[in-house]
Amino acid sequence: MGLKPLIETRFERALFASRWLMAPMYLGLIVALAMLVIVFGKELVYYAPKILVMDAEDVILVVLTLIDLSLAGNLLLIVLFSGYENFVSKLDIADTTDRPPWMGTVDFSGLKMKLIASIVAISGIHLLKRFMEIGEVDAEAPFNEPQLYWLVVIHLTFVVSGVLLALMDWLAAKTDKH
């Protein structure tokens, strides 16, 4: 009686095929990436004509905003490529010369590390922008000391979370696999 029952085989095939239910989510992330591109373009078009009347701090804030959007886009690409390849299907683009070398090599652990590193970088840039706005009377969204305190606490929480995730991955790599 070495053959699996027909019901079990069909169930396992259906279970394996269910990974394709994630595909619409990845399509949604592509739309989100397009939204980021539009916001990036809108910011660039808005500030580029003002460059000659902006002071250095304002230019730095604009550049930090653009970097922030770029990092968010990179984060989306990492999730799109790695998530799709790890959980849905391999991308059949091996012959493409533009294929990044990390594609197909980032496992779930590496994806977690890239995600937390991106989140820490985005949080750090946002925090830096807020620090640069200290003392500005015409800031778009003035903030107070408790808000700044919470921004620092949240950023440090992301940093500590990243360190703990890295430590857990390091410990898991050092233990014997069963």
From TrEMBL:
Pfam families: UPF0114. It comes from the Bacteria. It is found in: Cell membrane. It is a multi-pass membrane protein. One of its GO terms (cellular component) is plasma membrane. Its main location: membrane. Keywords: Cell membrane, Membrane, Transmembrane, Transmembrane helix. The chain crosses the membrane at residues 20-40, 60-81, 148-172. PANTHER family: UPF0114 PROTEIN YQHA. Belongs to the UPF0114 family. HAMAP family: UPF0114. This is UPF0114 protein GGR13_002949. It comes from Brevundimonas variabilis. The lineage of its organism: Bacteria, Pseudomonadati, Pseudomonadota, Alphaproteobacteria, Caulobacterales.
